[in-house]
Amino acid sequence: MTDTLAAAAEQIGAAARGLTITDIQTLTFNYQSCVGRDDEGHGHPAPAHTKTALMTRVRTSIGLDGYFVGGSAETAATAKRMIVGMDPLLREPIWHKLQQVQRLDPRAMLDRYLAAIDCALWDFAGKLTGLPAHRLLGGSREKVPAYASTMCGDDIPGGLGSPEDYANFAKTCVAQGYKGYKLHTWMSPYGPDLKRDIAACQAVRDAVGPEIKLMLDPNHHYSRQEALYLGRAIEEMDFYWMEEPMDEHSTSSYVWLCENLRLPICGPETAEGQFYTRAEWIVRGAADLSRVGISDVGGISPAMKVVHLCEAFHMRCEVHGGGAANLQVLGAMGIPGEMYEKGLLHPHVDFEAEKPWLKTSIDPVDSDGNVPIPQGPGLGEDIDWDFIKDNLVRDWA
Ligand code: MG
User: Fold this and answer.
1) pLDDT of 336
2) Ligand 1 center to residue 359 CA distance, Å?
3) Pick from 7, 57, 159, 379: most CB atoms within 10 A?
């Protein structure tokens, strides 16, 4: 057995020398969805309709590929021109080379599309070694507590149309095992409404009691005074954090808000600039908890830099968004990240049915409110290739 493993390790080592990227491709497939988008891009329940998803594939010289559901055909074409012939294990020079495109043409390499390339490279590295990405990153834990993260408010009866609706849904989520709950309250065209935000937070706190961790992600375009008014109200309700109540481009406004609140502020989430921006927020005191999502910063590689940056400052780093790659980052964290964001959830939407291309859920929540870190090689997704083939719109190109 030992000899066999040593021979296999030798084989992998030999295969890993002289590797090159041979192609970067995308395909598209259809699926049925019950989530629509409002004018600002927020998800809400909608009648069943057809959506098209895109998958990115990085091909290599040994016939082993890395995959990521996401990306764009245009970005894949740009990346193909730039990194074919490079070693797929050299994620650092690849990431920097692609990221530098953003300087003169940000749209050619948006962070969420750069993330598709980087995550597909991590998927490849995991498949090459037979290990999940978090173990290649040093590992730390096999499960993570989840919180239920709601969709934004709406006007749907029994949906998220009133403070009572948020409270009722919170009770449902807690009964399922969640130990935390985050409200996304009313945004355009259903809000904003400062008083109604506060009423919803109070209704949820009253419904779930003092032990459940509660977070708020309100309208992102409040003024300083509105953000302070909201923050002061929910710090009295023992909320765990508030995120993005103002446009994140004004770092000074966040410094001011942190100085005026006991309530922890979490961010930045959507501000551009990857780990560079997060470093500035930390040293300026613009947040109490940092925030990183693989789509916000361009992949697993830069997300881990934020994680390590936070560790050096004894600062927690809460992960934005769900999915396999974010779970791999959470699995690789030593100290900073506490919870997994499961969502976005809504009383009228079957969350699991929205990803029919996965044979098994990537983020099932157990009765204690924990989500396991995927253990399959790479990103650990169990992709249903038959489903994709049956619903193919455009094959690999
Ligand atoms: Mg948010």
Assistant:
1) 65
2) 28
3) 379
